[in-house]
Amino acid sequence: MIFNKHISISALSISLLAISCSKHRLDIAVSSQRATQFNKMQISGDFNWSTYQKIELKYLPSLLADKTAVITIKDSKGNILFTRNQDLTKQFNASILVPIHETRLIVQIGSNLFSKPIQPNSKIVHVTP
Predict the structure, then answer these.
(1) What's the whole-number mean pLDDT along residues 100-125?
(2) Hey, which residues does 82 pair with through a beta bridge?
(3) What pTM, to 2 d.p., does this model score?
C-alpha cells in the first residue's frame, strides 16, 4: 500500500514536470518567433541613432562690442552647453553637442541675451546678435 502511494506520487510529480517543461518550450518557441521577426526589421542606413546632434558655433567680431565678455550657450531649459571668456574683437569657431529635440539655443554675450534657431538643414549657429 505504501509502495503504491509512492509510485502514485512519483508519477504525479513526473507528469507535472513534463507539463511544466512542455509549457516552457512553448514559451521559448513563441518568443523566438517574435525575436526572429524583430531581427528581420530593416532600418535605413542613414538613420541617426544618436540623441544628440553636433552644432558648429561661429562668432564674428563686432566693431561696436566691448573688448571681452563671457559667451554662454544654453538649451531651452537653461542648461549650459558651452561657455568661454572671449575677446569680442576676434572670431572663434567651436563644436558642441546639443540634444536632438532642441530647435533653438539661448545665447548670452556679456549682458546681452538672445535666442538663435537651429536650422534643420544647417548645423551652424552664428552667435553674433
Answers:
(1) 90
(2) 73
(3) 0.59
The residue whose grid cell reads 542648461 is 79
The one-letter amino acid at 46: D
Please provide the CATH number assigned to the domain covering 52-126. 2.60.40
The reported pLDDT for the residue numbered 101 is 87
Instruction: Please check whether residue 81 is in contact with residue 94, taking contact to mean a CB–CB distance below 8 angstroms.
Output: no
pLDDT tens digit string along 22-65? 544 444 444 444 445 656 667 777 766 778 889 999 998 876 66
Separation CA 41–CA 37 (nearest Å): 7
Distance between CA atoms of 108 and 129, rounded to whole angstroms?
Answer: 9
Pairing status of strand 104-109 against strand 68-74: antiparallel
Angle at 41 between CA 35 and CA 46, to 5 degrees: 140
